[in-house]
Amino acid sequence: MTASKKKAIVLGATGLVGLALVEKLQQAPEFEAITLVVRKESQVFNTYEKVNQLIIEDFLMLNDEDVNGYTHAFSCLGTTLKNAGSKQGFYAVDYEINAHLADLVQDKHIHLLLVSALGANANSPIFYNKVKGQLEDYIESLGIEKLSIFRPSLLIGKRSDVRLIEDLGQSLFKFIENKWQKPFKYKPVTAEQLAHTMVVAALTQIEAFKRYDNLSIQKTR
């Protein structure tokens, strides 16, 4: 691998943002290899020439050797309380697995890029925001060589699962989009916008740590 070439490992590749991110990474000439950590093989990903699938049923079994040799680690991994089935299940996915990835890259020359959420706050009375905030606080405490955290608002795109609140939000967004085109704090963003911002950050970020808020995601070109 030449010094200019990048290698990425991705968690959450089968989700809304993950799928968009894999497409962007596949198109980026700077990335020569992309490893997707998945629970089962996807035939869709077999059509991408730079993509390799690492099949691990339990992501907490990802180990130090699995993340060696990469320049970038992306996590788009997340769920909902409904899909997780309980607060404990949600915490196990959104906090524990992402924290595990951060632990693995802590002492390596790897740029970690994590999707969080607008409103993330460890002191929030809202469980979702509280867990996101706790995760951010923990990862920031590790002193990772380079870290990017993305805080999107509602994400727009076609999901494989049904999320009633987000589907209603998407319908509302489409209704007002033509009437309010200027960026504003809570304006929803597309999965493609977020994925694009992540790849731009991976290639251009100089700071050891940078948080990308929802306005930043809207404005990235």
Describe this structure as you would to a colleague.
Residues 8-81 form the Semialdehyde dehydrogenase NAD-binding domain. It comes from Acinetobacter calcoaceticus DSM 30006 = CIP 81.8. This is Semialdehyde dehydrogenase NAD-binding domain-containing protein. The chain is α/β, with parallel strands linked by helices and 221 residues long. The chain has seven helices and nine strands. It has a seven-stranded parallel β-sheet, sandwiched between helices. A two-stranded parallel sheet has the order 7-8.
Write the layout of secondary structure elements.
Blueprint: E1 6-11, H1 16-27, E2 31-38, E3 51-55, E4 72-75, H2 81-84, H3 87-105, E5 111-115, H4 127-141, E6 146-150, E7 155-156, H5 164-177, E8 189-190, H6 191-204, E9 209-212, H7 214-219
Parallel strand pairs: 1-2, 1-4, 2-3, 4-5, 5-6, 6-9, 7-8
Please summarize what this structure is:
The chain has helices at 16-27, 81-84, 87-105, 127-141, 164-177, 191-204, 214-219; strands at residues 6-11, 31-38, 51-55, 72-75, 111-115, 146-150, 155-156, 189-190, 209-212. With 221 residues, it is of the alpha/beta class.
Q: What strand order characterises the main sheet?
A: 3-2-1-4-5-6-9
Structural category: alpha/beta
Distance between the termini: 28 Å
What's the number of helices?
7
Largest sheet: 7 strands, parallel
What structural keywords apply?
221 residues; alpha/beta; seven-stranded parallel sheet; two-stranded parallel sheet; 7 helices; 38% helix; globular
